[in-house]
Structure formats: C-alpha cells, structure tokens
Input
Amino acid sequence: MTGHHSRRMRPDGIDPAARSRARRRALQALYAWQLSGQDIAQVIAQFRSEQDMEIADLEYFEDLLRGVNGNLAKIDEELRRFVDRDIAQIDPIERGVLRLAAYELLFRIDVPYRVVLNEAIETTKRFGADHGHSYVNGVLDRAAAEWRGAEATLGRG
Output
C-alpha cells in the first residue's frame, strides 16, 4: 500500500473496489450467519480463511459484520418503519443487504449515503431475486431521507 497508489485509490487511502468486494463478501457471510445461527466470530474466521478475501478490504468486511451483529436490534427496529412486512419475512438476501446498508447509513456516516444506496442496489441485482433491487431501493431511499436527511437533501439539489 505505501509508496504506490493504484489509479482507483482515493486520497484518503480507501480503495472503492476493495470496499465493494468487502460488502459483497459481507453479504455472503451475513447470509450464511442468518441461516446457520453460528457465532459471528466463527463466520468471520471461516470467510477470512478463504483465498479471495485477500482482494477485499478485510478490515471493512469485519466492521460490517461486527457492526450488524452488535447493533442488530437497533437496525431491525429502524428498518421496521420502512418495510411492508416482518423483517423475518423479507428474502434472506434482501434482508442481509438492508441490514448492511442500514448499518452503514446509521453508524458509518463517513460513507456517503449515495455510495451505500448504489452498492446495496448493485449487490441485490447480483445476488437477489429479479425485482429485489427495486424493493431494496425503495426502502433505503425512504430510510436515507430520514437518517441522513441533510445529506440526502443536499444530494438532490
């Protein structure tokens, strides 16, 4: 990392492509965790040992998983206001995407809300059901307007 910067590296040292991969892997880990009920630390260890984790932002991957796990009650409580059904009834992929995005929107205000929304929609298009991204977009649009009101208002200007 030190000494040379790839073309895509931002001035703050964040590699957006590595962050995208971290989010995708975090979704897969969250999906596995939701289904298995394993301890989050076990899930993280399992994913860490996989080869392709080397190309993801490992620190961010862990932060996402520990953040969702540690704030799950608050995240689900906040999401409940924007979804049309019980959280448990939401497709597991969409539920994972919504929880990850909610964590970022609520607790990682260093990440622009537009990045969070775009990443969530792209990830859902890639892994979710056919029209899942429309549902995720609708929920997160409304949530971001409330949780990141000032930023969202400025962004629409």
